[in-house]
Amino acid sequence: MLKTIAATLMGAALFAAPAVAAEKCTASADSVWESAGKGVTIEAFASGSKCETAMAALVIRDETGAAAYYEVYPAEFVMVLAGMATPKDLEAALKSWIDTAQPAFATTGDLPEWAEGAESPVLGDFAFYPEEGIDRAAYTKVRDSKAPIFCYVQGMESMACIVKDAEGGGFYKLGVQTFPG
To answer: Comparing C-alpha atoms, which of 61, 36, 30 is closest to residue 149?
Structure first.
């Protein structure tokens, strides 16, 4: 089933590869996000004519198995996926990308505080940029809820943080934490 899902994702219009190009590099990985609830999983797929230029998809599935959140990235622009030359290397990188064993933040309660009057929350010297529409009050409410959070590298110097909504049960991107690249 994982291969079928990967093939469907990779074949979709999300990927701008020419239709005539034969896919020569494919890889996948999956992980359990235990703190988000029984049955919540994170899957990663990558495919391309070369591993170095593959597109990578990250999918969070809810307790029912439905895709509840997803993002697609050029692997060459994601620090932990860039430069992988073989499917085996790319698979190992995907496993690391979605690993939930040692999270950057265990819950939203571990996120940096957003001081009153500050432009955004700051962790050390690095800003956390909440998604558009998330103001200080909404951010503080989510932080205080100590909800499950999953952060993954989404570029060369930042990670995206996905939260399980305590009220609605869905998943959404809370924001991006920068780090030195």
So the answer is: 36
